[in-house]
Design goal:
The complex is a heterodimer.
Chain A: H1 2-7, H2 9-27, E1 35-42, H3 51-64, E2 70-76, E3 86-91, H4 96-116, H5 125-139, E4 143-149, E5 171-176, H6 182-186, H7 188-204, E6 208-212
Parallel strand pairs in A: 1-2, 1-4, 4-5, 5-6
Antiparallel strand pairs in A: 2-3
Helix pairs in contact in A: 3-4
Chain B: H1 14-31, H2 33-100, H3 103-124, H4 134-142, H5 150-227, H6 231-274, E1 279-280, E2 283-284, H7 285-307, H8 315-319, H9 322-365, H10 377-394, H11 397-447, H12 449-476, H13 485-494
Antiparallel strand pairs in B: 1-2
Helix pairs in contact in B: 2-5, 2-6, 2-11, 3-5, 4-5, 6-7, 6-9, 6-10, 6-11, 7-9, 7-10, 9-10
Classes of the chains: A alpha/beta, B mainly alpha.
């Protein structure tokens, strides 16, 4: 009898632990852990020479993203607010082996795009950003990242209106490889004004803004 | 907000204002001295008494906890001694079954050997037949001196020859009889050796049993020592518990590392089964599934050890009858083997997925795949590890049981030490409060020392005036006759004092 009375707490402790686990899992709000990454690639003018860097970034992202995450690559051209400008898009399967196959297919699509891309005459960054917001909202990702691989100099074609306020709550906008233009070298204020303008647009829309020019520090991209 | 500088402007000279304020303060403090002393004394005593009462309560709690710890410790010691004694009795039972179950057969064999030996001895005791009586007659005739008669000579020659033949036959018969007796004796040697061997076997069994009984005596003595609740037993058990606690904790730590390795083997392939993007709370479902598999292996291992009676974590399993327990053991062993097989295949799958991921990464980075990745050695190693680890994890039950049982003692001891320290701190706080009150009173008096000095001066003057008057009166009054010591003490004798 003595042994029974001594050992009886084990089932009680086990039941209590089980209850705690159930309660903790039940009480915790359901969090969406998936990431959605939409990369806008500038194809205007001389920036097409930088596309190999964009390819390296995309490869890095493919290696980083996990099953369940969403990724899309779209070009920035004269009118970027269009699904036609999406070069490749995918939501990775839950199974890692299938996700790896999808990543390989995605990589091939991007390779094909980089090798055959033609430069555009205008740079509609705002349209691309609006398209990115729309796409990621539809994808329903938990963390939303829009990567803008561009010099951030917007040149809209005649008749294009982009004075729509951005709705960027929950979005992280990351500007990558923001190259300095000739005018910027002469007067750095131009570069600063350009970056600040986009920062203001993003932050006024409720999003967060970062600039990563050193591509060796891409591992900090998702540290927000 | 009122300006504080106004305090320094009550007189035209600030220094004088300060002096006035000091004087007034000292005066106020002097008049408030008695109530302040009383209140500080009361506060000190309140703190002191409250802390003493609390310390006494904590002390009682500590004593109760120590008594409870002692009970638990001795109960554990008794249980341990019981288990040891039980085990020794089981060993004795096994030894008796092994050595003495064939004792009747052994006894019969010994008796048969002894009877054979006795028969042989009896056979060897038979004396060979001697020469016949008529030989003596012939011998006497043969001893007659020859008289020259040829008839007598021939007769005597014949007698001599006959006697020689008879002698030869008798000698041969004697030799044969002696040879037969030697044969019987030589046949007795193996029987002696067999008997000696049998006796040595019995001696060994008896000495084994004696050793076992001495071990049982030692166990019983230990049991008695614990049962009589001696301090020595308590000290020994405490020391043993501490050693067991730290040793089993160390071993458990090693097992935890093993479990983590095991978890890493199964977590990645689990994502292939349950999905890599689903979560339970803040944890990945694949990770939870991996932990579940590892925990399942540990639980099966604990049950297995209980079924083998190596541990007694679940008394229900230990109390099962032997047949059911054996069935339970084999069922658990089968489950564990299945789990080990599953884990081994998961380890294989993990290796495949990891290789695929590595190939993808290399492809993304534009690197040629290395030849090392194609080797099968890591795959086989992981599969073997995946199969062996569940079986190794089963033994965690033993250090776990020791850890649980010893942690009760260690926690109890730690609790008693904590209560003792708390009681000391409370007593210290009580004394500090009391003496701090007295210190404040003394500091208060130090601040108002001018007023106290004046008070003492005035009192001395006031006391001095009546004493001077009394001295003057005494000087004027006629001197009393000096009394002897007996007279001085006389009034005291009359009183009740």
């Amino acid at each position: 009898m003595r042994k029974n009375s001594r050992l009886s707490p084990y089932p009680i402790i086990a039941a209590a632990l089980f209850a705690v686990v159930l309660m903790s899992s039940g009480c915790t709000p359901k969090i969406n852990h998936t990431k959605g990454v939409y990369m806008l690639v500038d194809t205007s003018g001389t920036y097409t020479e930088e596309l190999n860097k964009a390819k390296a970034i995309i490869n890095y992202l493919l290696g980083t993203l996990a099953p369940g995450d969403t990724m899309a690559v779209a070009r920035i051209d004269t009118g970027s607010f269009s699904e036609k400008d999406i070069v490749a898009k995918v939501t990775f399967d839950q199974r890692p082996s299938v996700a790896n196959t999808q990543k390989r297919a995605f990589q091939k699509q991007v390779d094909g795009f980089v090798s055959s891309v033609a430069g555009s005459s205008h740079t509609d960054i705002s349209g691309g950003l609006l398209q990115a917001v729309e796409y990621l909202n539809e994808a329903g990702s938990g963390q939303k990242y829009v990567l803008i691989f561009s010099d951030l100099k917007e040149e809209l074609a005649r008749g294009h209106i982009r004075d729509v306020p951005f709705q960027l709550e929950g979005f992280h906008i990351v500007a990558l490889n923001v190259t300095k233009l000739r005018d910027d070298i002469r007067d750095p204020k131009n570069y600063m004004q350009r970056v600040d303008q986009w920062r203001d647009k993003t932050e006024s829309g409720g999003g967060s803004w970062r600039v990563i020019n050193d591509l060796e520090r891409l591992d900090n991209m998702f540290s927000l | 907000m009122p300006d504080a500088t106004i305090l320094f402007n009550i007189t035209p000279v600030p220094f004088l204002s300060v002096l006035v304020w000091i004087f007034l303060s000292i005066l106020a403090m002097y008049f408030a001295r008695r109530p302040f002393h009383d209140s500080m004394g009361s506060l000190g005593r309140v703190i002191y008494n409250a802390m003493r009462v609390s310390a006494a309560s904590v002390k009682i709690a500590q004593q109760r906890l120590e008594a409870r710890n002692r009970e638990v410790l001795l109960a554990a010691g008794i249980e341990h001694a019981e288990r040891r004694t039980e085990r020794e009795f089981e060993r004795i039972s096994t030894a008796v079954e092994r050595n003495l179950e064939g004792y009747p057969q052994l006894q019969r064999q010994l008796r048969e050997d002894l009877l054979k030996l006795e028969d042989d001895y009896r056979n060897t005791a038979e004396i060979p037949q001697g020469l016949s009586d008529w030989v003596k007659v012939i011998d006497a005739i043969a001893g007659i001196k020859p008289s020259g008669d040829p008839l007598v000579a021939n007769l005597l020659e014949d007698i001599h020859n006959t006697l020689k033949e008879q002698h030869k036959m008798a000698l041969e018969g004697h030799r044969k009889a002696v040879s037969d007796r030697h044969g019987i004796l030589s046949r007795m040697v193996p029987q002696w050796r067999a008997t000696d061997k049998t006796l040595k076997g019995i001696e060994k069994a008896i000495s084994d049993l004696t050793g076992r009984s001495q071990a049982v005596d030692q166990c019983i003595a230990d049991y008695e020592t614990v049962r009589t609740h001696t301090d020595i037993a308590e000290r020994q058990l405490s020391s043993s518990s501490l050693t067991q606690f730290f040793t089993s904790g160390l071993v458990l730590g090693i097992f935890v590392i093993g479990a983590i390795i095991n978890f890493n083997l199964v977590a990645l392939p689990m994502s292939e089964m349950v999905g890599g993007a689903s979560y339970i709370g803040a944890f990945k479902t694949s990770d939870v599934a991996g932990i579940f598999i590892v925990c399942l292996e540990v639980v099966v291992g604990i049950f297995l050890m209980d079924a083998l009676r190596f541990t007694r974590l679940f008394s229900v399993i230990g109390c099962l009858d032997d047949k059911k327990r054996t069935w339970f053991f084999f069922i658990l062993l089968a489950m564990l083997t299945i789990l080990a097989g599953v884990e081994s295949s998961l380890a294989f799958m993990r290796d495949r997925i990891a290789a695929d991921m590595e190939a993808l990464r290399q492809s993304l980075a534009g690197i040629e795949p290395s030849a090392v990745a194609a080797s099968k050695i890591p795959t086989i190693g992981q599969m073997i590890l995946g199969f062996i680890l569940p079986f190794i994890l089963t033994t965690v039950a033993m250090p776990f049981e020791t850890f649980i049982s010893s942690s009760r003692t260690v926690l109890g001891m730690a609790g008693a030490w904590a209560l003792r320290a708390l009681a000391f701190l409370l007593r210290l706080a009580g004394n500090l409060g009391y003496y701090l009150g007295r210190l404040v009173v003394n500091v208060y008096d130090l601040i108002i020392f001018p007023a106290l000095w004046l008070e003492a001066l005035v009192l001395r003057k006031m006391n001095a005036a009546p004493s001077m008057q009394k001295a003057e009166k005494d000087r004027k009054a006629p001197k009393k006759k000096s009394m002897t010591l007996v007279e001085e003490t006389a009034p005291c004798e009359k009183t009740a004092d």
